[in-house]
Amino acid sequence: MKNFIAFLLSLLLNCSCTTAHIRRNYNLRITNLSYLQPFSPFFVMVHSPRVDPIFTFGEQASSALTALAETGDPSSLVALYERVRGVYSVEVFDTGAPYLPGDSFDLPVQTRGHRNRITIASMATNTNDCFVAINGERLRWGDELLLPGLDAGSEVNDEVCENIPGPACGEGSGSPGNGEGFVHVHRGVQGVGNLTKSSYDWRNGLMKVEVRGDRDNLFEEETVDALEASESPSMASSMPPSEEPSVLPSIAWSVSPTALP
Fold first, then answer.
1. pLDDT in tens, 120-162
2. Burial 205-221, CB ≥16 within 10 A → b, else e
3. Which among 3, 78, 149, 250 counts the fewest CB atoms within 10 Å?
């Protein structure tokens, strides 16, 4: 009996080592749902659940996120995460940028084993510091997300053209600061500066994300789920407190295509 149990354990361990490195390819079909809010190039990262999120609601935005939300440049976020343990890939996706209202495009991502969390972020460029994001989510084939505009809280929403980099203002580069001081859901354009509310404001979601992939991968995902569940206690106990997971999901609503405008 002992030999039989040892055989089963050996078989399980060998199977786990193989399954843990399964690669899965997805296409994120992204649609800009706004009327006059182009999206900047995207920050794209695939990582484990132990990697710190790019933002936490109610807390101050990092300088790297501030750069994205105010200027549309994701390079500071890439520099911040490119050497972080647990990051599988990090890059700027700018094929076809800027992404105009009504545009749809495919953003390819690949996950591997437990590094299966996806983060993307882009600026709504006709604003002071509005961005859209998926913040460290585990996505599955067939998911549809309707994502709101978020406010980095780093810059007052004065809606003055010299502080707005988008085409509505001719690529302004100023930053008045004096923001709200924390990340929250954006209130939209109020018409207090150079932007008219009737043209540049929005309601509900700014971005739709449809997750596309191969149905045959679903069984493999379940196998990896079981593996990760068995590994979690030992992995957590081997890490110092400073590396414990810190994941806060982005706001998103699952929707059917008929529910969208």
1. 999 999 999 999 999 999 999 999 999 999 999 999 999 999 9
2. bbbbbbbebeeebeeeb
3. 3
* Separation CA 198–CA 202 (nearest Å): 9
Q: How many CA atoms lie within 13 A of 200 on its CB side?
A: 27
**Least confident span in 45-54, 217-226, 227-236:** 227-236
The CA angle 69-70-71, to the nearest 5 degrees, is 105
Q: Which residues of 10-43 are buried (b: 16+ CB within 10 A; e: fewer)?
A: eeeeeebeeebebebebebebbbbbebbbbbbbb
Taken as a whole, the chain contains a residue count of 261
Q: Average of pLDDT values for 227-242?
A: 36
pLDDT at 165: 95
Q: Please report which residue ranges of the chain form alpha helices under DSSP H.
A: 2-19, 63-71, 75-81, 197-200, 218-237
Helices (H), 58-131: 63-71, 75-81
CB 135 within 8 A of CB 53: yes
Q: Say if CB 26 and CB 153 are below 8 A apart.
A: no
135 and 119 in contact (C-beta within 8 Å)?
A: yes
Distance of CA 103 to CAs 29, 57, 99, 165, 222, Å? 10, 28, 6, 19, 34
Would you call the peptide bond into 98 cis, given omega within 30 degrees of 0 as the criterion? yes
